[in-house]
């Protein structure tokens, strides 16, 4: 009886080996050596200089900065989409107890405000240079009048 179990055991091992050996060989010799060595599942681009670091006549730098800007916008769009989806799923799950989702809603609102500050009301001319100018104008406004949305500071009368 022990010989039959031994024989059956050896037979199953040989069948498994015949099926597993080519798969293991292909994985170890072809797949693993050709894998990319970074742990991300998406392509990582190197960071390029931003638009404020480019010379005025360097069109290649302008183009790279604009492509980087558009990639960053797509990432931030997806972040907003995920945050909004999480809030909606929480609201559906909790039903009438939506107040349990307030931390998620606050996170989404903060991210939406930050997105709007950077990209909002840009219209068709959405590029790195226009976004940089928008940021510059906002900083000048805040220096003169205080944070946007708090109303204008009263100018002292020096007359």
UniProtKB/TrEMBL annotation:
Family, per entry: Belongs to the complex I NDUFB10 subunit family.
Record bears the keyword Membrane: yes
Primary location class: mitochondrion
Cell compartment(s), UniProt: Mitochondrion inner membrane
Protein name: NADH dehydrogenase [ubiquinone] 1 beta subcomplex subunit 10
Pfam families tied to this protein: NDUFB10
Cross-referenced InterPro entries: NADH_UbQ_OxRdtase_su10, NDUFB10
Record key words, sorted: Electron transport, Membrane, Mitochondrion, Mitochondrion inner membrane, Respiratory chain, Transport, Ubiquinone
Record's keyword annotation contains Ligase: no
Assigned GO CC terms: mitochondrial inner membrane; respiratory chain complex I
Topology within the bilayer: Peripheral membrane protein
Stored PANTHER family: NADH DEHYDROGENASE [UBIQUINONE] 1 BETA SUBCOMPLEX SUBUNIT 10 (PTHR13094:SF1), NADH-UBIQUINONE OXIDOREDUCTASE PDSW SUBUNIT (PTHR13094)
């Amino acid at each position: 009886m022990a010989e039959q179990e031994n024989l059956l055991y050896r037979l199953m091992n040989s069948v498994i080996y015949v099926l597993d050996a080519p798969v293991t060989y292909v994985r170890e010799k072809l797949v693993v050596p050709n894998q990319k060595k970074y742990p991300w599942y998406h392509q990582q681009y190197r960071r390029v200089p931003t638009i404020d670091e480019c010379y005025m006549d360097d069109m290649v730098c302008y183009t790279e900065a604009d492509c980087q800007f558009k990639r960053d916008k797509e990432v931030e769009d997806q972040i907003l989409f995920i945050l909004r989806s999480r809030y909606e799923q929480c609201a559906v799950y909790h039903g009438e107890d939506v107040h349990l989702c307030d931390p998620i809603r606050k996170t989404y609102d903060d991210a939406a405000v930050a997105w709007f500050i950077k990209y909002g009301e840009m219209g068709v001319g959405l590029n790195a240079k226009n976004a940089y100018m928008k940021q510059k104008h906002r900083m000048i406004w805040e220096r003169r009048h205080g944070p946007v949305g708090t109303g204008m500071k009263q100018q002292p009368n020096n007359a």
